[in-house]
Recover the amino acids of this structure.
């Protein structure tokens, strides 16, 4: 049976590498060759421990799962590779879910790959809840990966001049699971002029999952110590930051802080 029970009608066979293409439905688009040397060395020593998964495309095959294994096999000069051939009737939604689930369990996808996969499923399934259920992850996680596209309209309404910034709206939506509480926090934050006070509230929301808006604001008042960190960017990175700031209409400092907090959360340093 294929992962997640999505497809059970599969055929196992050896397929020539020249007959295989990377399917557009494969969610991994970036960082494909990262650590590929390690995979090549492993496959050279131990062989292929798990077959790739493909779907028929006329007289060819498209990879749904195992893109990096396929590339490693080409690097090793293999002529063919063991594969599970999934039904030709596999629809786009199931293919994306299958590819996403496999990749997220192996080597973590890039943020943009996650966002694009979730966005594709959002267009098909129509809701954050539907995407979360199909992937077996929380709605907050989906909102985090979707970025601003995953922010409810009730919170987007507070993103305006002198109101919430886009990164602040994203943090509220991805941190606070209860929409009523999220709206209550957004309402009060939109009227808070002091940037440092807003940041303390957002930090407190991360520290108090499931708690009320009043509890979050009480914790924020207790957070009196703010540490400032400065760092130097290379010229190319500084230009990229400036471009992002203009595209997102958000100050560079806010973008840098949002990116840092996201990295700390994803790597489980911030709990």
């Amino acid at each position: 049976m294929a992962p997640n029970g999505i497809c059970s009608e599969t055929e196992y066979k050896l397929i020539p590498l020249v007959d295989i293409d990377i399917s557009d439905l494969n969610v991994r688009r970036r960082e494909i060759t990262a650590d590929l040397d390690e995979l090549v060395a492993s496959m050279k020593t131990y062989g292929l421990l798990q077959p790739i998964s493909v779907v028929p495309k006329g007289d060819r095959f498209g990879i749904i799962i195992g893109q990096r294994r396929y590339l490693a096999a080409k690097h090793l000069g293999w002529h063919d590779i063991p594969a599970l051939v999934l039904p030709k009737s596999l629809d786009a939604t199931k293919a994306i879910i299958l590819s996403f689930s496999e990749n997220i369990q192996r080597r973590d996808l890039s943020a943009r790959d996650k966002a694009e996969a979730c966005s594709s499923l959002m267009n098909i399934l129509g809701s954050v809840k539907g995407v979360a259920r199909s992937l077996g992850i929380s709605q907050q996680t989906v909102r985090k990966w979707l970025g601003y596209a995953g922010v409810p309209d009730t919170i987007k309404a507070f993103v305006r001049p002198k109101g919430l910034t886009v990164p602040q709206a994203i943090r509220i939506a991805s941190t606070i699971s209860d929409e009523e509480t999220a709206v209550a926090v957004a309402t009060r934050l939109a009227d808070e002029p002091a940037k440092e006070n807003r940041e303390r509230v957002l930090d407190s929301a991360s520290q108090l999952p499931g708690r009320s808006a009043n509890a979050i604001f009480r914790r924020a008042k207790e957070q009196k110590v703010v540490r400032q960190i400065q760092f130097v960017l290379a010229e190319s990175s500084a230009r990229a930051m400036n471009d992002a700031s203009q595209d997102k209409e958000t100050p560079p400092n806010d973008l840098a802080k949002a990116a840092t907090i996201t990295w700390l959360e994803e790597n489980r340093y911030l709990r």
